[in-house]
User: What shape does this take?
Amino acid sequence: MASKGGRGAARRRALALTAAGLLVLALLFFVLDQPIASWISSTRTPWLTSFFHGVSQLRGIVFFGLAGAAVLGVGAIFGAGGLKRAGTTMVVAVLVSALAVCVLKPIVARHGPAGWGDQTGESWLVRRWGRFPSGHTAAAFSAAAGLASVYPATAPIGYALGGVVAYERIYRKVHYPSDCLAGAWLGVLAARWAARRCGGGTKGRK
Assistant: This one.
């Protein structure tokens, strides 16, 4: 009975967090996107522009998918079960989040902020269907959450990198904040799904 009660409480917390996330996303999408994007754009400096241009070269799914494959490869070479599980979870999560992005972009069909001109890294999907949600942000957060599912200590660095990627997408006027929030959310959900199916978790990671 206690375990059922615990599962019920966990489901209620998950539903409450989901509802709160949807509320914040809607608030951004319909009210705050433009003001926040304009403020971030106003912080432009030559140094930041150069830095974020470098960040844009991470190339979303390719970079973070390869990062997961590298973790998996190192785990296979040295026989480290935790690294193999983490790498597998990362790769699966990145692929699942990318699939979700491909499904949602044509449904929402929302273009990015008006006036953006730097098309570095623009994909065929973006040119055809629009920008919601952010695929780069989804890939970054799915990889970070996938690695953290086995090695929780990596979460601060991984999520910080994801935040930098999200900020870069807004800074360069490629995405609105809600695009990036939705991408981050998708990435974390994809990683949670992948972790359950790939044996993720900290127990027995060695």
Notes: The chain has a mean pLDDT of 84. Residues 2-42 form the longest helix (41 residues). The CA atoms of residues 150 and 203 lie 8 Å apart.
